Amino acid sequence: MTWGAAGVQAVKAPLILRFSRVPKVLQIATTSPVKSIFFGIAVANITQFPYKDANFLPSEARSFWNGVTFMQRTFSIIKPDAVRKNVIGDILNRVERAGLRIIAMRKMHLTRAEAEAIYAVHKGLPFFGDLIDFMTSGPVVVAVLEGKNGVAVYREVMGATDPAKAAPGTIRADHAETMARNAVHGSDSVESARYEMGCVFTQEDLGVVIPDQHAA
Q1: C-alpha to C-alpha distances, 113 to 29, 64, 129, nearest whole angstrom
Q2: What is the DSSP string of 132-153?
Q3: Which residues pair with 20 in a beta bridge?
């Protein structure tokens, strides 16, 4: 990634937004000796900027990015343990109170192929088989959520992976049993969300173009 007029080479980060040498697409005024920074935006979807990774920016731009929020979509699963406890409604209420909107939602029983696709990042790890067994042991509720900085907001609503370490009032603090049965899943990045929602939702479900993860 390259900052256009500023000439700063940024470290790699998990961005969908990328910068190139397209001249002066966007100008952001600053109060520093560097009067402005020009951005060449190679990908139009600016909503994918990971706002918490602003530390890699030059100091002149950091204060600007730290004050910006973007609409993001993230992927959620209410897991079999939470479905069995009949707390679907409580979880969805928390989601909406956090300012997230439900774009698509479905109650379903994941096949092994679907569960393995969603959790492909864990394939080969010792707990992978048990994880897939659990995720296919009963119905789940899958959903696509949207809101300002949606990925991070939903992860805050969920709480830490280990319910013993989850903040009071979070979903996992109130409804999770163990790390293995922790009530909900939420994507850890915009890229992960795009992949995961593509495992169970179609483009028509979401009204947007999402990558075809299963193309030959």
Answers
A1: 50, 43, 12
A2: HHHHTSS-EEEEEEEEETHHHH
A3: 40
For 63-83, b where at least 16 C-beta lie within 10 A, e where not — what string? eebeeeebebbbbbbbbbbbb
* Domain boundary, last residue among 37, 66, 95: 66
Which CATH number do you get for residue 139? 3.30.70.141
214 is catalytic: no
Give the pLDDT confidence score for residue 137 in this predicted structure.
Answer: 98
Q: Would the pTM count as exceeding 0.70?
A: no
**Distance between CA atoms of 50 and 79, rounded to whole angstroms?**
26
Q: Are both 54 and 106 inside the same structural domain?
A: no
pLDDT digits (tens, 9 = 90+) for 174-197: 999 999 999 999 999 999 999 999
The residue type at 8: V
Element (H, E) at 57: none
Residues 125 and 177 in one domain: yes
* 96 and 62 in a common domain: no
Higher pLDDT, 3 or 144: 144
Comparing 80 with 32, the larger pLDDT belongs to 80
- Given 122, 175, 185, 214, which residue is catalytic? 185
**What residues make up the domain containing 157?**
71-206
